[in-house]
Amino acid sequence: MPIGNVTRGTTGTNRLRRVDRWIAGLPVLRRAADLLVADVGYGASATTTLELRDRLARVRPDVEVTGIEIEPSRVALANRAARDGVTFRLGGFETPTPDGRRPAVIRAFNVLRQYDESAVQASWDLMAGRLQPDGRLVEGTCNEVGRVASWVTLARGPSGAGVPLTFTVSLRLAGLDVPSIVAERLPKALIHRNVPGERVHAFLVDLDRAWAIAAPLGTYGPRQRWIAAVRSMRDGSAGGRGWPVLHGVTRWRLGELSVPWESVAPR
């Protein structure tokens, strides 16, 4: 039996473009001999699963994507849109795949946010346990138009459990007021932890401060302002602590900011 609950199924064109861009950059996408990607909880239409396959095919034309939904009528509807490289299956967090193959990547977006926080680790474990040994699970959430997003990237641990590696914020910079708008779209593991004393709260406070201090650079555009803010987050030059910011300008300029999971993990 599929494991999970039927969710609202809200979806839309280009909603998941930010996380798809992240997945396209994962090393496993280039290294996997059997490049199967599972999209758990794709929603009421096949749109974002089809988009995922098209985006990843620019990196690996041989990629296969299987969309997984727990609601039978959604699967039946999506199967009308199935094409080469894309299939759809009934299922949940147990992540059923064609011929039982292990996915190189699992995307699970806007699913766990509709569950209790207590269900997060067990759901991570179920999905991560299905991964290839060096596979990745990307779980998170975004707003309805995909301009505000955040996610956790996880590996499969020795026992098959989901092991969080990194936390990423991704924002549309044009028109951005404060980066802490992402507080409304944190992954379920963090959304209730945005309170004083928790690491993710300190992270967002420092990010807002860094963004405010970098305001003069907005003259050169929001991208330059963001890059400066991320640098000051890394260096601690905005008056907060120094954060172990990952990657470099190539990813920062996309409106992304990633840190090791332990930097924001719940206390």
Task: Write up this protein.
This protein has 267 residues and is α/β, with parallel strands linked by helices. 29% of the residues lie in helices and 19% in strands. Strands 3-2-1-4-5-6-7-8 form an eight-stranded mixed beta sheet. Strand 1, helix 3 and strand 2 form a beta-alpha-beta unit. Helix 1 packs parallel to helix 3 and helix 7 packs across helix 8. The two termini are 34 Å apart. 45% of the residues are buried. The model has no long low-confidence stretch (mean pLDDT 96).
Keywords summarizing the entry:
alpha/beta; 9 helices; 29% helix
**Fraction of residues in β-strands:** 15-25%
The tally of helices reads 9
Q: Helix share of residues?
A: 25-40%
Write down the secondary-structure element order.
Answer: HHEHEHEEHEEEHHHHE
Return the average pLDDT rounded to an integer: 96
Strand order of the largest sheet: 3-2-1-4-5-6-7-8
Shape: globular
Kindly name the structural category. Answer: alpha/beta
The count of DSSP E runs of length 2 or more, i.e. the number of strands, is 8
Q: What low-confidence regions span 5 or more consecutive residues with pLDDT below 50?
A: none
